[in-house]
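QUALITY CONTROL LOG
STEP: pairwise intake check
CHECKER ROLE: data steward
CRITERIA: each record must contain a sequence immediately followed by its structure tokens, with no blank fields

ENTRY 1 OF 2
RESULT FIELD BELOW
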Amino acid sequence: MLRARETVAIDKDASRATSRIVGDALVFSRGLWVCFDMTVTRFGNSVYVTVPCFEGTQVPTPLSTFYSAFCSELNKTPRRPPGVSYNVSAVKQTRSEPAGIKEIAKALGISIGTVDRALHARQGVSPKTRAKVLKMAEKLDYKPNVAARSLKLNRRVRIAVHLPQQIQSFFDPLRAGVRAAAEATLGATVDLDFRTYPRLGEGDVELMEADVGRHFDGIILTPGNPSAIGASLQRLAEQGRAVVCVASDAPRSSRLACISVDAFVSGGMAAELLGMRLPNGGAVVPITGDLSTLDHADKLRGFAASLATEAPQLSLLPTIESHERPKDAYQATLDLLARKPRPAGIYISTANSIPVLQALEQKRLLGVIQVITTDLFPELIRHIESRKVLATIYQRPFTQGKVAFETLLRFLVEGVRPPPSTKLAPHIVLRSNLSLFLNHVSGPDETVDAR
């Protein structure tokens, strides 16, 4: 049974239909499906459709003209339009439950076994057939029953989660996302083991080496220095351990996949915001954690690239690395403010922003120098509300953790190999939309004594 990925219920007199392609189906107010590739467009209060393979016309025609013809056509024996490769006779009304492997097989006219092998990347299926199956699975909104599969296999899945103790304002919500996804996996038996090390690039390799001999099915981790953990990732892969990176990546390693916010875009947005706020020019400086961490390096690349194209009036000062140590960030900011010329803007590309804000506040420059921060936590709220922080780039740590767990579990239980990299869209938090994000605020983070 075909289900459009996004459908719009449209009456012949509708005035609020938006312009979009409705997959391969159009839903009328009567709930009837027309299984053709069509475009629905609104001009003023009139709704139009373009139907490339209906009656041989491609001319937009008022929906009211086609409505009765469509309903009449549905009462006839369905005809397969040119280029459509699925079973049209199975598509006349929506399903109340998600489609399964049987529905995919019926729509394509192939065996259930072929569909199963294609969905789970097993041998015996040609690339062309696999592509057709995956496309149809997407059309039908197919979702595998992970819990049922786990019960069928009668196995217990053990997953280790390696994350640093710092920075808590980012990694605590990420842990919460992993837990929430695990709790939502009804029927599956999943053992989570949360393991910590001091900070990115410090203690992570030792922890991985300690887990090489342990019986984990998979590991979720944030790589600090990709080159330093490459050998450990290779040993885990040789033992059949699946590793999903989260928040940063080790792209040339043996990891299974990476789930992260788009760091390059995050840096680019920060530069564009500063460019709009500082139209008369000036110098800006990024303050990051460690440029050996891919996430931090990608943010700097995006920041520099966007400055060149979106804010050419701004000059870029050398990047400051705090190595995610609050005291180092605080002292480095004081040293920066003592130099001439003083920067007009600062982009703090990690959640280690409070020490930087403390230094600016001590020098009475908070609100004078334009600041873009990263993520959201209680200490930051008052600075955004008072406009002393222009904006913060929210990295959605809870969602990152949730998606990382779901990706790893689906591979372990279903055998479905994920895309090598999944990048989430970062969010810009301003004073005007701050209230929409307050439910995402985590607990207190590290601060330093400014005295």
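ENTRY 2 OF 2
RESULT FIELD BELOW
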Amino acid sequence: MDMSLVAAIMASQAGAMQMKVAASLLKSNLDSQKSAVQTLLGSEQQGASSLANVAAGIGGNLNVNA
């Protein structure tokens, strides 16, 4: 096999591995953000007690423009 072909295959495999790692990190980040938003909004899954000890007005509005 030509060495340039071998190098191209190895680079392709390295790129595929990087994409798998990036996708895994993105999914983890999205899951943690989802959990944070659910906590702030007091989702039904977590129950009303999760916001029992916070100040008035917390969890009512979420500014997504920031």
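INTAKE CHECK: passed for both entries
DESCRIPTIVE NOTE, ENTRY 2: The mean pLDDT is 80.
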